[in-house]
Amino acid sequence: MARERLSLYDTTLRDGAQTHGVDFSLEDKWLIAEQLDALGLDYVEAGYPGANPTDTKLFGEPRALNAKSTAFGMTKRPGRSISNDPGFQALLAANADAVCLVGKTWDFHVDVALGITPEENVSGIKESVEAVVASGREALLDCEHFFDGYKANPAYALECAKAGYEAGARWVVLCDTNGGSLPEEVETIVAEVVKHIPGDHVGIHVHNDTDNGVANSLAAVRAGARQIQGTLNGLGERCGNANLTSIIPTLMLKPGYAERFETGVTPDKLRTLTHASRVLDEILNRAPNRHAPYVGESAFAHKGGIHVSAVQKDPRTYEHVPPESVGNVRKLLVSDQGGRSNIMAQLDRIGIAVPKDDPRVTRLLNTVKEHEAAGYAYEAAEASFELLARRMLGNVPQFFDVDSFRVMVERRHNALGELVTISEATVKARIDGDTVMSVGEGNGPVNALDNALRKDLGPYQSYIDDLELVDYKVRILTGGTDAVTRVLIESRDGEGNRWFTVGVSPNIVDASFEALLDSINYKLIRDGAPAPGA
């Protein structure tokens, strides 16, 4: 029997950005979008053009995605025409494949928030969807507070939803905006909606305020909805959104769903799920939830005794799915095989071919474990991992050696009497027997070190002229006066390539310098710089 296609719509970059403490930069957004795209999602809702400078710039400089890049915004403002609504015009001007419009479907909000008649609201939905369709983009209608509206006035909520569908919306998305609905309510209401709108045009978008986001999404699918909206790791305001990191493997691996439905996520792509989840956490500069279903560090961890014995005989005893199916690993105190498989998967991802029984793999695994115990994290710092792996599995040229560096920070009044803080760094390096000393200034010690280090690398200078440090994140791993600091640096070159490196030290400047060195060495290796004297 042919399986039905389910559409997966991610709103991490827009709805997820409402999370308390989350503030995505433009580079963050593109990096996350690429992770989502590689995972195989159908839609990536990247933001709200016109709402803030970051989102406006993002939709002004599009990058190619396999997923449909989607802009989010409101239906036209009451009392204005489409052409006289600057916010709506920003949506129409956005470089996006699709536009998702949020519209009121609860008569209470139409009366109190909009202050217009129910008929005017329906007309506004219709005109807005038609305008998006006329612009050549795919239109989606996100029915705000649909479940509350349906409970209060089923006929009117349905009228709003049908207006969007009849105006040409590809998807009419039913939103549980305050996250208060329960699975049985969602399933019953969605089943009624699909009697009026075909299920392959109905989506579900729920929040997680009762911790039922995943359950409500699955209930909607059972009732006939064929698009699911959510966020990676369940990001979102208040208690978050439906967690796609749990929904996707459930759809693909669990009886009752796996044989009925298919998504754009293939089994191979599903094995990158844990990696994508942890990369997002690194970008957010927060520790991953070790107890998260499917992708958490403890999701397949078994503490000694009877559990370990049982899992060794038959993993199904305590594991509901194979950990490798989602890119995670089994953790047993008596075995490191899960660790080996994880290392082999990472080597395969970066294109390093090595036999799995090569003893160097064991040495690399042990080194990675030692580094991780010291505070390193390689999930988001793949350039640092690749350098480590290549140094242990092959020959990596020693392009240069740093003999010493010094950083000075001075706070003083300048010639205009303004109080300023200036950083100056000096780096002494040896390149093919020659000693060079460079001095750089910056708006902070790390910027000054970066400028000094890249000021003069002799024969390698041409390889790093286009190298740019674009992001810098710090996490304090332990408390006290001897706190260990982890620094994650993102670099970019003139061709648009980006990579991450990591450094760890009790000294934040030392950790930063280690990450900077990795960044430069990675660039030299990737661009094929010759070994000294070659």
UniProtKB/TrEMBL annotation:
Pathway annotation: Amino-acid biosynthesis; L-isoleucine biosynthesis; 2-oxobutanoate from pyruvate: step 1/3
PROSITE patterns per UniProt: AIPM_HOMOCIT_SYNTH_1 (PS00815), PYR_CT (PS50991)
Pfam families per the UniProt record, alphabetical: HCS_D2, HMGL-like, LeuA_dimer
Classification via InterPro entries: 2-isopropylmalate_synth_dimer, AIPM/Hcit_synth_CS, Aldolase_TIM, Citramal_synthase, LeuA/HCS_post-cat, LeuA_allosteric_dom_sf, PYR_CT
Catalysis performed (reactions): pyruvate + acetyl-CoA + H2O = (3R)-citramalate + CoA + H(+)
Alphabetized GO MF terms: (R)-citramalate synthase activity; 2-isopropylmalate synthase activity
Protein name: Citramalate synthase
Source organism phylogeny: Bacteria, Pseudomonadati, Pseudomonadota, Alphaproteobacteria, Hyphomicrobiales
